[in-house]
Design brief:
This protein is mainly α. It contains five helices and no strands.
């Protein structure tokens, strides 16, 4: 039997990379892309585990999984940073640069 490629390995790798690149978009986009990559990884990992000798690109699948996990972690940290900024600086001060600067100087004693 000829070796085949896993159907979603390239997509998992691509989505894992995109999840890292888009984690700075308030964290939401990176979280979504990383979650989709992990879902696709699980379906391909089950397929690979049925017959490991039939597939040749399992390394791409594992790399995509690692990148997706890193992207999810960075996205969660970005979301936590945004929640912290809103709670510390205040939502009304985020729209006005001068008020935001004043509030940050008050908090950090500059």
């Amino acid at each position: 039997m000829e070796n085949q490629k896993l159907p979603n390995a390239t997509a998992v790798l691509f989505l894992g990379i995109l999840s890292i690149l888009t984690c700075c978009c308030y964290g939401v986009l990176g979280l979504v892309l990383g979650s989709i990559a992990l879902y696709l990884y699980n379906s391909d990992a089950k397929l690979y585990n049925t017959d490991p000798n039939s597939f040749i690109n399992y390394q791409n699948l594992k790399t995509g999984r690692i990148l997706a996990i890193i992207g999810i972690i960075l996205s969660v940290l970005m979301i936590l940073l945004m929640v912290w900024m809103v709670s510390v600086v205040g939502i009304e001060n985020l729209n006005n640069e001068e008020l935001m600067r004043t509030r940050i100087e008050e908090l950090f004693g500059k």
